[in-house]
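Dear colleagues,

I hope this message finds you well. In preparation for our joint manuscript, I am sending the TonB-dependent receptor (Zestomonas insulae) sequence together with its predicted structure, so that both groups work from identical material. I would be grateful if you could confirm receipt.
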Amino acid sequence: MAAAISRACLTGLATGLIAGGAWATEPPTGKRDGNQEGQLETVVVTASKRAEKVQDVPIPITAVTGEAVRDKNITTSSDIERLAPNLSAQSSGNTGGRSGKPRWFLRGIGTNDPNANQEGPLAIYVDEVVVGLQGDQSFPLFDLDRVEVLRGPQGTLWGKNNTGGAIHFVSRKPTFDTNGYTKLGVGDYGSRLTEAAVGGTLVPEKLAGRAAIYYEKGEGWAESVITGTTGPRFEDFNGRFQLLGNLTDNLDALLILNLRKLNTGNTPNYIVGATSVNNVTTPNPGGGISQGGTTYLPPYGDDPDNTSDFFSTLANSSNNWYGSTLKLNWYLGENTLTSITGLNKGNGDTWLNPQIPPGSTLDKTASDGDTSSDQFTQEIRLSSPTDRALSWIAGAYYYDLQADSATDTLRYRSGNTQEQFSVASWDQDAKSWALFGNVKYRFTDRAAVTLGLRQTWETKDITETTLTATDTAGNQNIVIIGPGGINSVRGSGVVAPQELSTDASWTKTTWDITPEYRFTDDILGYIRIATGFRSGGFNQSIVRGEIIETDPETLTDYEVGLKTSWLDGRLTANLSAFYYDIKDLQLNIQQQVPGTTITSTAGSSDGNVKGVELEVQALPLENWRLAASLGLLKSEYTDFVYTVGPTTLDASGNDFYRTPETSFRLDTDYRIRLGDFGQLLLGTDWSYRSHIYHNATVQDDPVQETGDYWNGNARISYFTPDNQLQLTGFVKNVTDQSNKVLSQIVNQRGVYPTGYVAPRTYGVQLTYNF
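The corresponding structure tokens are as follows:
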């Protein structure tokens, strides 16, 4: 029985109980399990589906402990861009990373595509289950064990194939020891936070459990000129419940249940940079919008920032998400058979009520949208022991994501004779099957080679509909779409509805080979060649009477790296250099030509990225921790010829969008020991990113660019002598930067909807650990 308990604990814990960023703040006790006083933390990850020290895994990884995530007030999934080189995850929703899908970019690989049905090239996992829809990849972080950022294609062992890499969020698992915490926080702009977790034995030697909750509310920092209320508003409730059981001496199980309820309100959105009369777009440095001879100048003129008063429709959005994961480990002699089953379901509703600025003749648009998704994944793998010259993993994977969306939109032109009502919907089913294997052979204690192979079969089918009704009879009544649906709609001209369906399938073999050599006990060198595959897709709306289809995207990564440790474990320095060769890169096209403005998945380009990354963690003094990373990138689109309407354009030679050539991160903390009075911990982290373009095709428009910038955060924590009580004060965006998150042309009137990062915020938090 003791052996069974040990195995169950390992299943829930050993893959990460002592895992974390080597630079992360350790608890005030001074060390964690497996560490010696005066050394950096031992780091264990599961990048290769086995528990290994991060310095022993021959791929570039950044790992961050749950304690570090909590202490640094990293509150949402997109916030982890503060912690890894060449990573960004900005969200255009401007609600602290809660609404709007994050624009994940890692080493230049990512997507700007607003199409909600598209799967990104960077895979996001929670407890080994992929989060398929990009709109579900923005979530709060609480009661975590660690976060792993795996750079480069993970096309062999990680379920849903991808080209850009994988990010794995690992929750803290149940143990047979009672422990937990309670956390309360308040901050400016109406911020309120409640977070708690508790776990321990339910049935001695048989069943352990853990429950965690997270609730946060915010009122926002910018005021609407229509309602006088502030935004962005949000209310976010999350729960996670886990059971870890020893079913037999050779079988254990882990069940995880998740739920989330998110409500958001008025979101700041700023219209910048163009006027439109009779559908002819001209630049307008004043930032006004002109129609019918009347110009509306927003209160912020042509130079808004993240706290400017904003003009917006009345907006409400609600999203619900439910997930369950069942992980089984069956110990078959020396081998282990693992099954991971994931079920996720989501639904959301967005309501926009039309408003117009006083005295203007601007169009006003109302919409009511509903989305839903059902995802099922199943992975089965058999793994051998690792203490052999030859070790291996073999498995199979299945993924099925069904998602649909329907949006009703009304466009009303005040003072004109036209009302227009349209309905658009899409319903997509994406399936993926794969067989995979991974073999590692150790020639000597110092030399080894790893080979991976995966065969993937993918299919997608989609049905799209559209209907448009136009009133040309001169009626001036306003048609309102409210929470109860459409109150009225009249149309003297109706375009016959369209319904189109299409499907496609793809097959791809991906592989990797990684020879490694340990020069000394503390220096590991490796060479890696790895391939990745991202399936094709479809535009989510009918464009010129057809559904646009994109081809699969492929990437080959050529990489060399060193992982080193120095000064008896007080310094680690990891270096990697890589070259990406990319074919059929899927790009969103946002471009204006006379008479046409379009956003679609029509773009396809080859390209390449060259890069160097350096990560350093150090313990210069017993109480001083320091971490830094530097990322250098050079990217270029090649053979980038595309069409918009009747016009053929060439963007070859452009830089990758959202890809800074230089990124730098510095993170440090210093502990002041107060003897019988406890301890103080002072910490700060800073990041630098050089200039980026927001658009793949237009790179001569300053509005669609963000210049280089620094962003910093600071915190101070007091710990009582028994380490049970922690009081933390924090400031985010210390220098109150107002960087653009998004600014792109998305409609025929040439308006740039522009979003910004959150302004400087501050707060205090009280945590009780037990």
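For the figure legend, we might mention the following. Helices lie at 2-14, 66-71. Residues 2-769 form a domain with the Maltoporin; Chain A fold (CATH 2.40.170.20).

With kind regards,
E.M.
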